[in-house]
Write a structure and sequence with these properties.
- Pfam families: MFS_1 (PF07690).
- The structure is a single chain.
- With about 425 residues, the chain is mainly alpha-helical.
- The chain is about 80% helix and about 0% strand.
- It contains 22 helices and no strands.
- The model has no long low-confidence stretch (mean pLDDT about 85).
Amino acid sequence: MSKARVPWKAVIGGSVGNLVEWYDWFVYTSFAVYFAASFFPEGDNTAKLLNTAAIFAVGFFMRPLGGWLLGRYADRKGRKAALTLTVTLMSASALLIAIAPTYETVGYFGAVVLVVARLLQGLSVGGEYAASATYLTEATPRGRRGFASSFQYVSMTAGQLVGLGLQIILQNTMSTEALDSYGWRIPFVIGALGAAVVFYLRRNLLETEAYDEEEREVEHQGRGTIKQLLAHKKEALLVIALTMGGTVAYYTYTTYLTKYLSISAGLPKETATLVSFCALFIFMCLQPLAGGLSDRIGRRPLLITFGIGSMLGTVPLMTALGGVTGFAGALVLSLIGLIIVTGYTSINAVVKAELFPTNVRALGVALPYAIANALFGGTAEYVALWFKNNKIESGYFWYVSACAAVSLVVYLTMRETRDAALSRAEQASEDVVTARV
């Protein structure tokens, strides 16, 4: 199995689009410290960030709708068509943020424009995750799926790194006043242009064999419907439960980390950004290694390792991070957290795709995952800031540990998915091998 070839053209094509999608998604949080006052001038810094974090969370609550609509679209019209549509929506949302008027110009109407843009982003990302996960999994032969699908988080993290890298460049070439005034718009303009390029790249992708097979043999009405999804209720609930701990931990050690190091630990913004950049780069490089390992030993061992590590390690790690005084200590502790999270991020996409049949695979991954992210991932930063604002910041650390504990129970009881057949052709091949034995 391990000798099967990786279809690099499909992996790179799907991942490049995912990079731009998540660059736009994460750059909002990366630059929130600069544009928060432009839309919410009243209150202290924490209050302003709470307002922008609330708008960030709004985008997550559109993800279930995006998961349903675009997951259904991917199951009916194809993975390629869905990938092209999601990047188009993301380009439009980035452009909206880039031109959003400030409070000084039009009052709170500028904040309304931000909300609309975040709603579009939520709709897009709600479908992007499933379309990308399904495409990468279906386009890769069994025995290399863990490795190939890990590039979803490679691309997601690369998108964030591009955003953080751009932030570092702007921090060192522009004054704080210029960044607060207009510099924060630059990354959103770049995101909109990048999405236009990816639109062209995705139009040249090939459809997956599993979907083509389904297209030939099954009527459209039977694909991507809620009725079909309800026939797999156990798997849908499993996706929600196994996502819960992972998504909270991921957003804690990625999007929230820079703010935490800056606001709570008291590190300069520039130092906090550099810590996040270096830690995320190493984290990105670990994803294919862990994904490849899952192809050899299975998915469950990695998930269980993450669950135990996050449940027991979050409180001491975050407490220690709150007391760091320099770059080195912050980097080491951040890396420990991200290494633990790798047990989830490297394989969560392939595990979910392997749970469902082709006719409802994209919707089965999209909708339950989007619901879990709306409830836990999208609210993570807001919950963390709420705890801080109420002078009980450590309560958030226990919240993350509790979410991981719930998911750990699922990891311990779920079935192994590594050897699942994703198409009739694979199942037929498996049946022939079994008959010979």
